[in-house]
Amino acid sequence: MIVAFSVTPLGVGEGVSEPVARAVRVVRESGLPNRTDAMFTTLEGEWDEVMDVVKRAVEAVAEVAPRVSLVLKADVRQGVQDAMTSKVEALERHLSTPAD
User: Fold this and answer.
1) Which of 18, 42, 44, 65 could form a disulfide with 33 if both were Cys (CB 3.0 to 4.6 A apart)?
2) How open is the CA angle 39-42-44, to the nearest 5 degrees?
3) Number of compact structural domains in the chain
4) How far apart are CA 64 and CA 3, in angstroms?
5) Can you give the pTM of this predicted structure?
6) What residues make up the domain containing 87?
7) pLDDT of 69-93, one tens digit each?
């Protein structure tokens, strides 16, 4: 499965990069394929391992924030591996060919 999620610390003021870095550190240390951009972190793996990482990322932020918001979107598809890369590659192939 692929999960795109965002963990937002609430009640810590305007600067949230340090608490968010705690969540991203958990993801990167998990060893699962992942990518972080300005809005979401995307993570790929089996259901239980991905959800465990998301939970631990939220818990890491909760250690320094009185409240945490979680937004999560999942693509659950059996038998597919490396979808994080292959989905983007398929899109780029379509973008590189002229439109009709």
Assistant:
1) 44
2) 175
3) 1
4) 24
5) 0.86
6) 2-96
7) 999 999 998 877 888 887 887 888 8
